[in-house]
Amino acid sequence: MRTSDHTRPSPNRVEWEAEALTDTDTYEYRAKCLQGTEPGTANLDADSTGDRIREQRRLARLTQKQLADRLPYSYSLLNQVECGARPATVDFVAAVAHALRIDVTALTGQPYVAELQQDRLAELVRPIREALDLYDLGDDPHLTTRATGRLMGAADQLCADVRATHLRKAARALPGVIAELTTTAYRTPGRDVWQALASTYRTAHDISVKLGYYDLSAVALDRMDWAAQRASDPCLGAVRQYMRALVYFREGEYVIGQRLIRSGHSLLDPADQGREALAVAGQLHLGASVIAARAANGTAVDTHLGEAETYAKRTGDASDAYWLSFGPTNVALHRMSAAVEMRHYDDAVQQARHIKLPASTATSRRAHFLIDRARSEMEIGRTEAALKSIAEARHAAPEQTRYHPGARETVRGLVHLSRRTSDSLGHLAAWIGL
């Protein structure tokens, strides 16, 4: 999304080289961290997000103080993250990526290729990439397709599999369904077929994001727009803008994210008061609420959550509407997520205690809730509870949790905070790739 742009003025060379030796305030402490002799830093790996932040900062020829001046975080926190004494939270990483004008994956290390190869997931990415690339070749004369009704069912099943966090199953089936629907759309074009094809591109986006292939997710959203326009479905177009907004949210581009949310609203017909249109409008407000929270705009957070709540009262549980999981439960989950993004961790933990997830809650949403809860519990010093929450997320959604950068950094934080790594924490850290 971004290109490295280091045209800003560089500090004096002598000053920068001196900073390279002293920029952690305690050079000796960094050495202890790397040796694992400082309390709370045992098993510190040498390829952490903090290490990548330090490397990218130095490539930009910035001192810690200069970078900290560009962040809505303290110099002390930057110092501790680079040293490895504090985990790099997703909001902090996004802010650093924005300040350095680089992709957030340059700091998170995504995709986590070693783990993806171990899980036999990496080999499933190339066929998806090829399926997205071959969208404009038209009818494949060598392809025998299933009946349209069965293909629409297959597209819905892919959405269901992703929400059940069966990522391998969905990734394996996806390219074939895309190919069949593409050929069907060219042979016998119709609104339902184009909608189903747009849905498969949306699934490609979901899988790509969850596995850390953000570049591929952007291509998938372009293809989703291509199919949604041919379906003449404004709701699909609005859902695509919602997803684009979250892409920029992850990159720390909050102003662009809010513009995309407004664009999504503009695509909806105000006269359409159907359940699906209301659910999409409500979900756009939920997306706007977490973007506003990350941007520290509490007033906007309350406004968007209030609007979403109003829509949810009208729709009830609309989880099946464009697979957005919209409804009263999702409003409550986003209210908690907003508290996490604003770093109101006590409030987030308090909210989590009162959230009772229905049995029908999508596994992907349940795991996200547990990861948010774990981060908040860790931040307020409830390390045992945080470990339990992450373990629950792993049990519920192992494929999603293992590749979630927030889960990874929370586990890293728990390792740093523990004076003696328990067997359960050690096994969890090894499993997640630390």
Automatic annotation (TrEMBL):
Pfam families: HTH_31. GO terms for molecular function: DNA binding. Residues 53-107 form the HTH cro/C1-type domain. Residues 1-20 are annotated as: Disordered. CDD domains: HTH_XRE. This is Transcriptional regulator.
